[in-house]
Amino acid sequence: MSRQNIAIVFALLLPGLWGCAPDAWNSRQATGYNAFLNQIAKECYPLQMGNDQMSEVILRNEFGRSDNYSYFLDQTSRVYYGSLSREAYRSSINGFFLGGSTNVAIDCILSKLPQNQ
Q: Is the distance from CB of 57 to CB of 65 less than 8 angstroms?
């Protein structure tokens, strides 16, 4: 592969990496976010997203369990860190998890965000 092709590939991939939430690669060091996850798992129990119950998965620390859980973690970290608005979070979660009780869970999650979010 030529240097020009490598530069093009790198230029295309780099913006995608910037879009990831700060904890997307390693959440063990994200103590504030991890505490937030534990808080919503307990205080918003049952944390129902469509057909998926997230509280138990969070409390059992089953990261990477499913694509649905990975999506939930990604979107929730983005709203927690302020890179996604509350309205965009609601829209993305509702669009991904189709189900009636999802709005109740979203309302609870958003009510637990730190005040600066």
A: yes
Nearest-angstrom CA–CA distance, 42 and 25: 25
Angle of CA points 19, 96, 50, to nearest 5°: 135
47-50: long-range pairs with CB below 8 Å, 24+: 47/105, 47/108, 47/109, 48/99, 48/101, 48/102, 48/104, 48/105, 49/93, 49/97, 49/99, 49/102, 49/105, 50/96, 50/97, 50/98, 50/99, 50/102
Domain segments of the chain as ranges: 22-112
pLDDT in tens, the chain (117 residues): 665 545 454 455 544 444 544 444 444 556 899 999 999 999 999 999 988 889 988 988 776 678 889 999 999 999 999 999 999 999 999 999 986 678 999 999 999 999 865
Phi and psi of 37, rounded to 5°? -60, -45
pTM: 0.71
What 3-state class would DSSP assign to 42? helix
